[in-house]
Write a structure and sequence with these properties.
Blueprint: H1 4-8, H2 28-51, H3 56-74, H4 88-114, H5 120-141, H6 144-157, H7 173-181, H8 190-211, H9 214-226, H10 232-245, H11 251-269, H12 273-286, H13 297-305, H14 309-338, H15 351-358, H16 363-373, H17 378-392, H18 403-437, H19 439-451, H20 455-469, H21 475-492, H22 497-510, H23 519-528, H24 532-543, H25 545-555, H26 567-589, E1 591-592, E2 594-595, H27 598-610, H28 616-638
Antiparallel strand pairs: 1-2
Helix pairs in contact: 2-8, 2-18, 3-4, 3-8, 3-18, 4-5, 5-7, 5-18, 6-18, 8-13, 8-17, 8-18, 9-10, 9-15, 10-11, 10-12, 10-14, 11-12, 11-23, 12-14, 12-23, 12-24, 13-14, 14-25, 14-26, 16-17, 18-21, 19-20, 19-21, 20-21, 20-22, 21-22, 22-25, 23-24, 25-26, 26-27, 26-28, 27-28
Length: 644
């Protein structure tokens, strides 16, 4: 039967107006009906992936019709709404949203042939569709994303009244509805297209992995590898969160899946509750930059800039390694400083036993990677991954996918995809309005005007925009919006498009642990029973090495695997980055062989930042500072003046 990972995967990364621990739970005929709809949706995506996608407008509108229909039945409108059955209003919204989307599905040829000419009833249908999409997003994701997207509607309509660079000719109400409802630039745009193809299939793949016990295998392997080391449970959290990140598209889902297991273990060996929650939040945030899924954003990056998906995946390898290296360093230094030991090795499973018993469960991941490396498209690769997962489930009787378990897995996969699908649909409003008003390039020019075209200030401003737009948003939505607003400026000054989009994506991910709205940290605090704000700031501190990594790979693009032209230069840049992240971790934790003084921490922090800029002089400076601090600490310890 599917395990708990399925049920939390890809839950919305946003503060919701009502408690979203569970969707509605139905009984009897209604439960059977919902199961049939969700299974049909999953089978539709599997069928089109194997036998060929429908025309873009049809594929997207059919997908969105079923997504919105399910959202209105599964997600209550308010806290007071029934959790056992939909209200009449829910049924009306569900049916209307399906009708509006299926109209486009059925009439797409006629709509395309009229090329901008719309009918009165299409204007009505488009208005209803737009309103229902906003309401669906509010139910699933909370208020931040709908409010932000509504600002773009106001911006498009009142363009003539806008100040300065924001001023434009203004769009009429019918033109706005036409752009968003009857073209592939709005609700049925590129981002929805990615959701209706790649994202859905990979979420379904994650559901199959979870149902066959892969998440349990990751936890067991992490325990066997690191449980006995200093601060072992915290390191278990890092490894299991990284592994779960390969199949989960959400920080909150990752926290809920691995945190329920790792946070109590960390508290057991002596970590404070807020620290245990912070470790899990920071580690789970990093799960979104783990290949091959990258929090569902990899597919959008690939489609939006026209590069192969495998190139995006390979781009993420070194940044993900550096991010988890930074957290690992922080944990090791903190555990040494506090004198925290690991778990009893005798009580832990052996690596060989875990691999022998369950190692085969990770094979579907390698199947996908193999097909991607061979040049097959992601849909074909995901289908083979799902097929291999189904076949491997028959290795052990307890993991076997019988008909009942198969139906439950298809149902869980469809339900898990709803939040991402709704977010992808609604951000089409932002993309459509920016395209129709031509504001994107003007914003880029404005950013360059403020920064005088200098790289570092432009990067800092782009970082700020990505973090700001990421507050309370799903990562996919915040990446799409930030890349539309800020990425053009960096491309204009000569940065590679893929590097720029990955820079923006990285900070969209880090917004999950950036106060004041950091849902990943709040989720972990709830599990740990800790103060949310204290947990959030500790998670931010732990993830802080990750904030310099995007700057490093912009200044040293050879760190990204697709950019490698000289392996000696690559390894030099990698060693520099590893050393810089370690030095920054010592500054943040205030420990290097011994407790560091404030001047020592400031010196280490400055040395770490200097290593962002490539060159042997800055590399030697950073290394010299590290050696000096080590020798100084050793001398102090020998003199019996240790601060520990």
């Amino acid at each position: 039967m599917p395990d708990s990972a399925c049920n939390v995967q890809n839950e919305p990364d946003a503060i919701s107006p009502i408690k979203r621990d569970k969707k509605r739970m139905f009984d009897g005929r209604l439960k059977t009906f919902i199961t049939c709809v969700t299974v049909f949706l999953a089978l539709f995506h599997l069928y089109t992936s194997v036998f060929g996608l429908l025309p873009a407008m049809q594929q997207r509108s059919f997908h969105i019709a079923f997504v919105l229909f399910l959202v209105f039945l599964l997600y209550p409108a308010t806290k007071r709404s029934s959790l056992n059955k939909p209200t009449p209003i829910d049924w009306v919204c569900a049916v209307l949203s399906a009708i509006c989307s299926l109209y486009v599905f059925l009439m797409y040829k006629d709509i395309a042939g009229r090329a901008g000419i719309y009918t009165t009833y299409e204007l009505y249908l488009g208005t209803i569709m737009l309103a229902l999409t906003f309401e669906a997003a509010r139910r699933v994701l909370g208020y931040p994303l709908p409010i932000f997207c509504s600002l773009f509607l106001l911006f498009a309509y009142y363009g003539r009244s806008m100040p300065g660079v924001l001023k434009h000719f203004g769009l009429s109400y019918p033109r706005i509805v036409e752009e968003l409802y009857l073209t592939t630039d709005g609700l049925f745009g590129l981002v929805s297209g990615v959701s209706a193809t790649y994202i859905f299939l990979f979420i379904l793949f994650g559901a199959f992995l979870s149902s066959t016990g892969t998440s349990a295998f990751f936890n067991d392997l992490a325990m066997a590898l690191t449980g006995h080391k200093k601060g072992g449970p915290a390191k278990i959290a890092v490894i299991s969160s990284a592994c779960m990140g390969t199949i989960s598209g959400s920080t909150s889902a990752n926290v809920a899946t691995t945190g329920a297991f790792t946070i109590p273990l960390m508290k057991k060996i002596g970590y404070p509750a807020y620290y245990a929650g912070a470790v899990e939040a920071a580690a789970s945030t990093g799960g979104q930059i783990m290949p091959p899924v990258l929090g569902s954003a990899a597919f959008i990056i690939a489609d939006s800039i026209g590069v192969p998906y495998i190139k995006v995946v390979s781009t993420s390898v070194i940044p993900a390694l550096l991010y988890f290296w930074g957290i690992w360093c922080c944990l090791s230094l903190e555990a040494t400083k506090l004198g925290l030991e690991g778990l009893n090795k005798a009580s832990l499973p052996k690596v060989s036993a875990v691999l022998r018993q369950s190692g085969y469960k990770s094979l579907p991941l390698f199947v996908i990677i193999y097909f991607l490396v061979q040049g097959y498209n992601p849909l074909y690769s995901a289908c083979w991954g799902i097929a291999s997962s189904m076949m491997l489930s028959f290795v052990r009787k307890e993991d076997r996918l019988n008909l009942k378990a198969l139906i439950a897995t298809l149902e869980d996969g469809s339900k898990s995809a709803l939040s991402v699908a709704v977010a992808c649909t609604l951000v089409g409003v932002v993309i459509g309005m920016m395209g129709a008003t031509g504001i994107a390039l003007r914003v880029g020019d404005t950013i360059l005007g403020y920064t005088a075209g200098r790289l570092m200030p432009t990067l800092v401003m782009t970082m700020g925009i990505a973090l700001l737009l990421g507050m309370g948003m799903p990562t996919t939505a915040s990446y799409v919006m930030a890349s539309a607003v800020a990425a053009p400026a960096l491309v204009l000054i000569g940065c590679k498009a893929l590097d720029v989009h990955f820079f923006v994506f990285f900070f969209a991910v880090l917004s999950s642990v950036t106060p004041p709205v950091c849902v990943g940290a709040y989720t972990a605090a709830g599990i740990a029973g800790a103060d949310p704000n204290r947990t959030a700031f500790m998670a931010l501190k732990m993830a802080l090495p990750g904030f310099i990594i995007p700057f490093v790979f912009i200044y040293s693009p050879e760190l990204l695997l697709p950019n490698v032209q000289s392996w000696p230069m690559f390894f030099q840049a990698l060693l520099t980055a590893l050393l810089g992240v370690f030095i920054l971790a010592t500054a943040l934790e205030g420990y290097l062989l011994d407790v560091m003084s404030l001047p020592e921490r400031i010196l280490a922090f400055a040395a770490a930042l200097s290593m962002i800029v490539p060159g042997w002089k800055t590399d030697l400076l950073g290394f010299a500072v590290l050696v000096f601090l080590c020798l100084f600490a050793k001398r102090r310890i020998r003199a019996g003046k240790a601060r520990s």
